[in-house]
Amino acid sequence: MTLWTLSNFVHTSNFEGALCNLREVFAAIRQARLQLNPKKCQLFRRETTFLGHVVSTGGVSTNPAKIAAVRDWPLPTNVSNLRSFLGLASYYCRYVQDFATIASPLHRFTA
């Protein structure tokens, strides 16, 4: 089970552990005199989108919507457009083997 709260998440392998962690999180929130918006809370999720990535019990993976944005990006026609594309593509460099080598020729155009 995974508990997502305050733009953070706590992972446990079972429901009882999740309840225990949830009690601790709520106690800390109460002690800090913070409030939660129930409409924005996601509890006991097996998967969520977090900082542009899909986080699940299986690990961290790419967000298909973000990959579509990279794939469908218009062909850069100037240095500014190329820098924008490289910034977007670089966000997912951890998922592309040899990304630096692949992107190197494009970076030369931005210098």
TrEMBL record:
<dbReference type="InterPro" id="IPR043128">
    <property type="entry name" value="Rev_trsase/Diguanyl_cyclase"/>
</dbReference>
<dbReference type="InterPro" id="IPR043502">
    <property type="entry name" value="DNA/RNA_pol_sf"/>
</dbReference>
<protein>
    <recommendedName>
        <fullName>Reverse transcriptase</fullName>
    </recommendedName>
</protein>
<dbReference type="InterPro" id="IPR051320">
    <property type="entry name" value="Viral_Replic_Matur_Polypro"/>
</dbReference>
